[in-house]
Amino acid sequence: MNIIVCIKQVPAKDAPLSIAGNWIKESDIGFEMNEPDRYALEEALRLKEKHGGEVIVLSLGPERVKQTIKEALAKGADRAIHVADDRFADLDPLGAAKVLAAAMSKEKCDLVLTGLQSDDHGFGQTGVLLAALLNLPHATIIMQIEVENGKMKLKRELEAGWFQHIECPLPAVLSVQSGINKVRYATLKGIMAAKKKEINTVSREALGVSLEPTQRIERIYVPSKTKKTEFLTGTPKDMAAKLVEKLKFEARVI
Amino acid sequence: MKILVIVEQRLGKWNSTSFETLVAAAQIAAQTSGNIAAVVIGKGVAQLAEELAGKNVAEVLLVEHDLLENYTADGYCAALAQVVESATPDLVLFPHTYQVRDFAPKLAAILGKGMIGDCIGFRKEAEQLVFIRQMFQGKTAADVTFVGAAPWFASFQSGAFRADLLEAHAGGKAPVNPVKVELKPSDLRTKPLDLFKEAKASVDLTQAPLIVAIGRGIKAPENIAQAEAVAKALGGEIAASRPICDEGWLPMERQIGSSGQTVAPKLYLALGISGAIQHVVGMKGARTIVAVNKDQNAPIFEIADYGLVADIFEVMPALTEELQKNNG
Q1: What residues in A contact B109, CB-CB < 8 Å?
Q2: Which residue in A203, B4, B245, B269 is deepest, having the highest Cβ count within 10 Å?
Q3: How far is CA A113 from CA A7, A39, A55, in A?
Q4: What CATH number did the domain enclosing B130 receive?
Q5: In this model, does residue B103 exceed pLDDT 70?
């Protein structure tokens, strides 16, 4: 079973963000693999271990994205496609999905996996849009994948603690929920092996996808506070004592 | 501006975020001299359409078909594409539910359009609607506009508007107009099976008046005992943000957020929780919110009543001690 996993590189969780137009200043911060995509990659590797085939990682972004691609290869993906695009921040969800769909058009694959959403833009649309563009069935928020007789039995998460099983044919696109599995770390052997693995780089322009956004981020800003926060100061012991006072006599909740 | 609001029901029960979206639609309509049509989709949902007709909408479109009895993305997309094409709205709004995430971007794409999802507000600027959504896990907000011709598609986050502001219909009742849609079984490529809940929960956080919640800042499972000590001294329940439960450090039933429980306790003490949107929607209704976080820019402080910019590993033992002192 051949699987394409879409992975995104995003600013590191603790990176201090400074805003620049419709994106952020990239110079001083670190980047990492989008957390939900780690679960999608892990799920692809597990499916491959069970059913055979190949795992191809696909990532869109500037040169720095290669670092995250190498991490995925070190974990066990077989090869990678990097769509190089320095204007990635100007792509809207539909535009990004068009680029990814074009990049996978020459691949024969049975399953496309994405994480549920990205930790930067957070649109959460890529998987669903890929399904629309590739004319494939899809399902999202997946907590379990079982493949049998050329089709899948999936466990979908719904709201408020509900789940649903659904049956889905192959090929298909699935958006994987975080927590579906326990992600592995790359081994030293994996890191060495990754050096010999192929990363095929194509530009967005070469794929023939132009920037025709359906929506535009006009500006990004730090949201104004809606609540007045009283900050307690001092040593941890001072803060703890003040907090108990406040909770007892001001908020009256204890 | 003509606005379609796609409301959500499952097994004949409303998803209440639908009413918040109707309030958002009413506010947009008021500023654009527009009108609202609410769309009810399913099978055997005429009763729900009648109920909706009593609200402040110009009409209710009732979309029924045997193949719409259970939700499928394919069925909803095929049916709603026909509804949007015949109703020719300028704006199509959805509550940002799990179900909407599953089909709405595809519906928009089928019609060659994009969707601005998970909005927390809007404003009208000159002749343009500007939608506000969060980015970078709530650390920033963004103003987003549509490019190109209508129809435009957008969804509003749960809690972004107040459902209780939804007015009754001024003239008593809006007309309910059935819309016929063509669907065939082969359109539905996925097959929905059983709906279920996992093993019965041993704790009901929604009833807990005092909650101590931990996030990624707890770092390792062996540190949870320190947070549990705070909870014990407080007489409260321990809870967590999603990553903690994903790691298996606490059971899923203790997870607060869009995919877990929604709580509104008297006190919510957030320890090492950054305040990503998915978590905040589950606890922002708490009466008093206390946040302890090393990062003074963590979004959790935006909704906190009391903030402690500090290392939780220093605060937790100190707080346990102070609470015990208070207990006598």
Answers
A1: 94, 97, 129, 132-133
A2: B269
A3: 9, 10, 10
A4: 3.40.50.620
A5: yes
What kind and span of H or E run contains A101?
Answer: helix A93-103
Q: Is A217 on the interface with B (CB under 8 A)?
A: yes
Whether B198 is covered by a domain: the verdict is no
Residues B43 and B109 in one domain: yes
**Nearest beta carbon to residue A129 from set B109, B261, B291:** B109
DSSP conformation letters of B111-143 = TT--EEEEEEEEEEETTEEEEEEEEGGGTEEEE
**Last residue within a domain, chosen from B132, B152, B187:** B187
Counted domains in chain B: 2
Does A12 contact B at CB distance below 8 Å?
Answer: no
B111 to chain A, any CB pair closer than 8 A? The answer is: no
CA–CA distance, A68 with B94 (Å, rounded to integer): 35
For residue B328, is pLDDT > 90?
no
Which pLDDT value is given to residue B53? Answer: 97
Q: Residues A53-106: pLDDT tens digits?
A: 999 999 999 999 999 999 999 999 999 999 999 999 899 999 999 999 999 999
pLDDT at B200 over 70: no
Cβ separation of A223 and B310 shorter than 8 Å?
no
Which tokens in the block code for residue B7? 């409301």
Q: Do B106 and A128 touch (CB under 8 A)?
A: yes
Tell whether B193 is covered by a domain: no
Supply the angle between the helices B98-110 and A93-103 in degrees, to the nearest 10: 70
Structure confidence at residue A176 as a pLDDT band (50, 70, 90): very high
- Report all structural domains of chain A as residue ranges with CATH numbers, in order of start: 3-203 (3.40.50.620), 223-254 (no CATH)
Kindly list the residues from chain A whose CB atom is less than 8 angstroms away from the CB atom of residue B306: 229-232, 243, 246-247, 251
Shortest CB distance from B73 goes to which of A119, A138, A165?
A138
Q: Shortest Cα distance from A198 to chain B (angstroms)?
A: 31
In this predicted model, what pLDDT tens digit does every residue of A203-232 receive, in sequence order? 999 999 988 899 999 999 988 777 789 999
The vertex-A18 CA angle with A16 and A20, nearest 5°, equals 150
Global pTM reads 0.88
CB contact under 8 A, B141 and A223: yes
Closest-CA residue to B279 (of B291, B266, B267, B262): B262
